[in-house]
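Dear colleague,

Following up on yesterday's call, I've attached the two folding results inline so they're easy to grep. Please treat them as preliminary; we haven't cross-checked anything against experimental data yet. The first protein's sequence and structure tokens come first.
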Amino acid sequence: MLVLQAVEPGSPVTELLLTNDSMMITFILGKLQQHDVTFVQRNDATGAAGLSGIQKMTAALRMMAYGTLADSLDEYLKIGRSTAVESLQSFCRGVISIFEAEYLRKPNEIDTARLLHVGNHRGFPGMLGSLDCMHWQWDKCPTAYHGFFSGRSGKPTIVLEAVASYDLWIWHAFFGMPGSFNDINVLDQSHLFDDLSAGRAPPAHFVVNGSQYSMGYYLADGIYPKWATLVQTISQPQGRKKQHFERMQEACRKDVERAFGILQARWAIVRGPARFWNEVDLGYIMKTCVILHNMIIEDQRDHDASDEITELLSSNPIQVSRDITPALVDFFKNNCRIRSNEAHHSLRNDLIEHLWARNGDEE
């Protein structure tokens, strides 16, 4: 009942809080109360009851879901501006500490097998997702940092690099680079391929057009480098085969852009200009929005389709192995494999032929 009084029906917050017959709010609040005493109701020196955990959590969620100003919560929730801001900060840190390992994890063996299976079904064997960047305008950027954080828009922004899969689950989120950086600069700083370079990532074995490969790849736009782990579209394609590949690649690459759109629609705080001064706080807010986004995606997932994929994987398993090779020589060798221009063109040419043989004649 407290949830329904604090949040409007049909809102993004209600979508999260009423998940699984209103149990999600109780679950998250219980975890937060175990993690941080901020969300435990206490009495003051006079014995009067203080703010409840549900009030503080609702204040944080309203600021995230609607982009509500902290000042506007006083009359509605009886909570002051400073307490609302503190609640948001504590909520974000608590959610990240408790749920990051589960809802912002890197794909494990089972996840990789599922992504490979779906990628093969969509015509891209070996595809693990789509890669792109999103800019979040920083309204309160200190004047001294304006030039460093301002990009093409002329306004200070902070970049989120993300990888999203077919079901809009965000598997990788790297946030904090200034808006003056382009996608290549952000990729050079991110940790997307760290596990693959260190030999900790599960290799993805697949066959395309008769050629065998052992590293999965991400679909990306034309600005990204020509690496073996990135498959770009073709600028000004010549011939029906390349034109067909361009259409198929761009259609699948929209997964990450759709994920960005849903993330911003669900959490208005990352759609509008950021009003916090501290860059660290913005990082916590963005990561929390991604984690809650994945929690909602998991709840809305088609369990019948998931069961079907699991059954197909058990009947026709995809070979995924883990080989830990911490030696420095192997690290450099893996980096060379990742950045191989020759392997990039070979993979893309094989995909062009594979897609054309698969359904090119239907055009």
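Below is the second protein, in the same order (sequence, then structure):
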Amino acid sequence: MNELRQRCRQNHYAFFFDIDGTLADLQATPEAVSIPSSAVADLKQLTQQSGGAIAFVSGRPLSQIDALTYPLHGAAAGIHGAEIRTLNGELTITHVDAQQLGDIEQYLSREITSLAGVRLEEKGIAFALHYRQAPNAQAALQQLAKNIVERYPDFKVQAGKCVWEIKPRACDKGKAINFLMQTPPFKGRIPVFLGDDITDEAGFQYVNQQHGISIKIGSGESEAIHRLPNVIALHQWLDDLANNNIDLDKMRSVQHG
């Protein structure tokens, strides 16, 4: 009976997960990142229990989100909300001037040639300057990113863990979660968002405003109310949630009184 009550409570919630640094440990390169099969199994179980009210909200494009979370293929927001797919498969994509994208790519490719260890990741409508293997390049890359957004005001700079991202100004994870919350099966539910980075703060702010549950993975200042120390702890929390051993109502009462 208690398990049934817990499952019924879960039907009142909508779940949003960041990927890198949250569901998956950070790696030297984006391609090296993976989500353990046990965590994917728990996500699949939670998807069934919540009637599909799970979405991945990531700086990665949708194609990479789908590859990392296979065989799940539900709602998702890629590139911080520049690409959004609802549960029924409807796509909303932020359109950016193709000439500007080409100019930005050429400029960044040219400017980083002298910066050993720096990686330019093209995301279709956004760019990421990775310096995990070149920490001394942080300031130079920040200046490059600032140069871009000064020249092209439709874009903004987003700081991350060992990365500077250049993305459409209109997009952030809070807006992405808000968009999905207006669609079934998320509509009318209480949002729960888990993330680890500066890029997730807009999501935490939105969830807090909606009297939901915000959870940060790792250390550092944050708008999130709850904490898990690392990705391993997140995996245990997810397993407990999938097996109805987490009282979300209690977590929410702690957060909002």
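For the second protein, one point worth flagging: The radius of gyration is 18 Å.

Best wishes,
A.L.
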